[in-house]
Amino acid sequence: MKTLIKTFLIVLIANTTALAQRDHGMAMTRIHAAKMAYISDRLHLSQRQYTNFVPLYNEYERDVRDTRHNFMSKYKGDHPDEIDDATTRRYIDDNLDYQQAIIDLKRKYNDRFLAIISPRQLADLYIAEREFKQILLKRLNDRGGRYR
Length: 148
Description:
With about 150 residues, the chain is mainly alpha-helical. About 85% of the residues lie in helices and about 0% in strands. The protein contains 4 helices and no strands. It starts with a helix and ends in a 6-residue tail after the last helix. About 5% of the residues are buried. The N terminus is likely disordered.
């Protein structure tokens, strides 16, 4: 009987975790779709531009996300009040390296974006990204941090 209860609890926890991950993935897909709609509308992309821009932008976003993940994973679990001065200094230096890596990515992708969109649209892209982030953060805050 105990084995049956333990098995039931393990299956229940596994299913709950899987559902939470699926819900998170679905929410991230919806957020990405909304972001792409916002950006394409903000940039006034033609159909041809949109067709060429989206795969390149997805590649750019993936590179930015990987760079952010690499930086964040170094300090995952560290609590600011519990780290020593040497670790804090290393974090500051790594943060500057992270910011430089993001700038380098933007420089790397500029020419590739400019083969598809105009310089004005490229400038508007970075503005639209900031605007979308602000809108998303406000909506999350209004919903108490939930992303549904």
